[in-house]
Amino acid sequence: MSIHVKIVGTSEFISGYLAVELRRFKDLSVSTYCKNLTEPVEQIIEGSPDVLILDMYQDGPAALALADRVVEQVPEAKILILGIDDYHHGPSAVDAGARGHVWIKKSATELRSIIENIRQGQIVCPNEEEIREMSKQVLEGRRPPSPLSKRHLRCLTLIAKGYTNKEIVRELKCRPFTVKEHIRTILKVLKVGSRYEAADLARKHRWIKAG
To answer: What are phi and psi of 31, to 5 degrees?
Structure first.
C-alpha cells in the first residue's frame, strides 16, 4: 500500500530535491506544497497525506506554528519536522504536535524508514550523537547540505560571477554541450526557472560564496 507523503516548505531544497529523492521509492506517493505556510490548514493538507513533512531549518517558527494548527484541526495528523538543531528545536517540535524531528541531512533511504515508523504511530527523534553533531554544525555556522555535485557547484559559481556559457567552457575546459547539460541539471535539481535564480538560491544556502 502506497504511503502518501506531503512535503511543505518554502525551501527549494526541501520541495524540490527532497521530493525527487523520495519519489524514487515506489511505495511512496509524494506531493509538495510550496506556498505561504499561513494558508488555511485544509488547503495545505489537501489530499489527506499519511505523513506531513515540514522544514524547520528554512521556515523556523512558521513550521512550528503550522504543525500546531494542523494538529489542532486534525489531531491524528502525523508530522515529521526536518531541522538541524535538535537541542533547541526538538522539544518545540514535539510540543507543536510533531511525531518526529530529525536531521535535515538524513539520506532519502533513512527518511523512508522514518516515514514508515511515523505512519505506524511511532515517535522518532535523533540519538544523542546526532544531537551533538547538529548543535556543533549550528555553532560553527556550517552550510546546509548541497544537492549538487562539486562540478555543478563550480559551474554555478561561475554563473554567479556573470560568466557566459563560452567563458564557462574555457574555465572548466569542457565542451559547450557539457556546460548546457550542467545548467539543465542544476535547474532541474533546484527546481528553478533560470540560471540566475539558481545562483541566488545557492548563495542563500551558502553552497557557493556570495559575490
So the answer is: -125, 165
Tell me which fold the domain 3-140 belongs to: Rossmann fold (3.40.50)
pLDDT tens digits along 47-81: 999 999 998 877 878 888 888 889 888 888 899 98
Q: Quick check: 60 and 84 in contact, CB under 8 A?
A: no
- Who's near 188: CB < 8 A, 6+ residues apart? none
- 3-state SS of 131-152 is HHHHHHHHHHCCCCCCCCCHHH
Spatial contact of 8 and 53, defined as CB atoms under 8 Å apart: yes
Q: Looking at domain 150-204, does it have CATH number 3.80.30.20? A: no
3-140 shares its CATH topology with 150-204: no
Strand, coil or helix: 1: coil
For 189-208, write each residue's pLDDT tens digit.
787 888 888 888 888 777 88
Nearest to 70 by CA among 101, 99, 111: 99
Amino acid at site 101: H
